[in-house]
Specification:
This protein has 17 helices and 10 strands. The chain has about 500 residues and is mainly α. The strands form 5 sheets. Strands 1-2 form a two-stranded antiparallel sheet. A two-stranded antiparallel sheet has the order 3-6. Strands 4-5 form a two-stranded antiparallel ribbon. The longest helix is centred in the N-terminal third of the chain and has 42 residues. It starts with a helix and ends in a 5-residue tail after the last helix.
């Protein structure tokens, strides 16, 4: 087995790239909708003020969009450079949605982006509006296919293991596309983007109010962004509820870690913070039944039987069946050309235990427990900041509607300083999703230590620090360009 340092550095490099990429993605998703709504108002009202407003936010969108592409491309290349065993093992499945995203969604997004950004005076208002909405839709479709790929890693469906090619191969494309985890994750990610874009617009607009500039523009932007953000955050909560059900069903260890739940059962409590619990609430969130059974970490490791009589194997039992699957696989490979009958017998044993194939690589049951402290607090950062930002948007919209926000400098400062909070909430959400399923690259099928490439630790360390420097430079460049554009303000009427 590969050395742990290689796995740790490969994970760190991929996490670094993903975290930087997610700085740009949610703003793209959210700002696209905000500017499309503003341009719709312009076309309906035929008021050039709204054209000027939409063009300003479109300029900030373009800056963010351009920088985000670079980190996304590097992220996809890392599947081949750092995780080649993973790419070989499931490339037939994982590559399909990524290819569709690149060929269809990204090209659609990029094509209409050019029409949108450069076509203001060259095409009709309605055609330009359509191109703006197609950019927003294309951004969402791009996220959809990437999240279908990611969700398959969380809940693998629609495939069979082929021992002759040593690959998992797709047998049901629509099972992959309609994966229930993918559906909830898609809406959760997109609506988190709406919240991010809205908080960004509100915060920047409040900067103008603090500096007593572009007051009409700022107030109008706050109104549109707050409405989009409130709708998006409400939908985000609904998708989060659906996601909680799926995590409880398909990834119980992640749920137990997110709650710090060592011993579960029926009427499982929800922990707000250590020492403060709501009785029965976790059962409601995970099963929609206050009497629903939620296993804790100890039950998942030791094995348990639910009240309806369904028995779940212990970690040791899964590991034993995994080792049986690996042994049968090796026997099949060695005998298939010289003893077909014995090979067929080994193949039958493999098929009976292939569900636990990945557990054969696990050396100790404790490896199956993710970093509970990290997951527990990341979940609370995500939920806590999300609730705060929802209340903030409601307050801001109410005060704007009452005509008071222009003179409420404390609320303007809170709105401006809340921009980093929405990014922290998004990053925390991805920590829960990705670190929460460790040690698995693919849940139950392939642990990270079996997915990593055969490269030197030094090579990964070197590229890690290069990426730190390059990505930080990207971020600094974007922030400088954004700040310069914000200081310049919208075009003069």
């Amino acid at each position: 087995m590969v050395e742990s340092a290689l796995v740790d550095w490969s994970r760190a490099q991929f996490a670094l790239t993903a975290a930087y990429h997610w700085i740009f993605v949610p703003l793209t998703l959210g700002l696209a909708v905000v500017m499309a709504v503003m341009e719709t108002i312009y076309v309906v009202k035929k008021d050039d003020f709204w054209k000027r407003t939409a063009k300003f936010w479109m300029k900030l969108f373009a800056i963010n969009f351009a920088i985000g592409i670079a980190t996304g491309i590097i992220l996809e290349f890392e599947f081949g450079t750092n995780w080649s065993n993973y790419s070989w093992f499931v490339g037939d499945i994982f590559g399909a949605p990524l290819a569709i995203e690149g060929i269809f969604a990204f090209f659609m997004e990029a094509t209409f982006f050019a029409v949108m950004f450069f076509g203001w005076e060259k095409i009709s208002k309605k055609l330009h509006l359509a191109s703006t909405w197609f950019v927003a839709i294309g951004s969402a479709i791009s996220a959809l296919w990437i999240l279908i790929a990611n969700s398959w890693m969380q809940h693998p469906v629609g495939m069979e293991f082929n021992p002759d090619t040593v690959r998992h191969e797709m047998v049901d494309f629509w099972a992959l596309v309609l994966n229930p985890v993918a559906v909830s994750k898609f809406f959760h990610a997109v609506f988190s983007g709406w919240m991010t874009g809205s908080i960004f617009v509100i915060g920047v607009s409040c900067w103008y109010l603090l500096n007593k500039r572009e007051t009409k523009f700022a107030l109008a932007s706050i109104r549109v962004a707050a409405i989009v953000g409130i709708i998006g955050t409400m939908a985000l909560m609904l998708s989060g509820d659906s996601s909680g059900i799926h995590v409880g069903k398909y990834q119980p260890m992640k749920l137990a870690a997110a709650e710090g739940l060592e011993d579960g059962g029926t009427r499982a409590p929800f922990s707000i913070v250590p020492g403060i619990e709501i009785p029965g609430m976790l059962s409601i969130l995970a099963t929609h039944d206050i009497n629903g059974y939620v296993p804790g970490i100890n039950q998942i490791l030791d094995g348990y039987t639910t009240p309806d009589g369904v028995r779940h194997l212990s970690a040791e039992e899964k590991m034993e069946r995994g080792r049986t699957a690996l042994s049968a696989f090796e026997k099949y490979r060695s005998l298939k050309d010289i003893n077909p009958a014995a090979a067929a017998s080994a193949r039958k044993v493999l098929d009976e235990n292939v569900e636990y194939f990945g557990y054969g690589y696990i050396d100790n049951p404790e490896e199956l427990v993710p970093n509970v402290t990290l997951i527990y607090w990341a979940f609370r950062v995500m939920v806590g900041f999300g609730m705060f930002l929802l209340l903030l948007m409601i307050l801001v919209l109410w005060m704007e509607w009452k005509g008071k926000i222009e003179n409420m400098r404390w609320l303007q400062w809170i709105s401006l300083l809340s921009i980093p909070l929405v990014y922290l909430a998004g990053q925390a959400g991805w920590i829960v999703a990705e670190a929460g399923r460790q040690p698995w690259t693919i849940e139950g099928l392939l642990p990270v230590k079996a997915a990593v490439s055969s490269v030197s630790v030094g090579a990964v360390q070197t590229t890690f620090f290069i990426f730190v420097a390059v990505f930080t430079l990207f971020l600094v460049i974007e922030m400088r360009i954004l700040i310069k554009a914000i200081k310049q303000g919208p075009e003069v009427e």
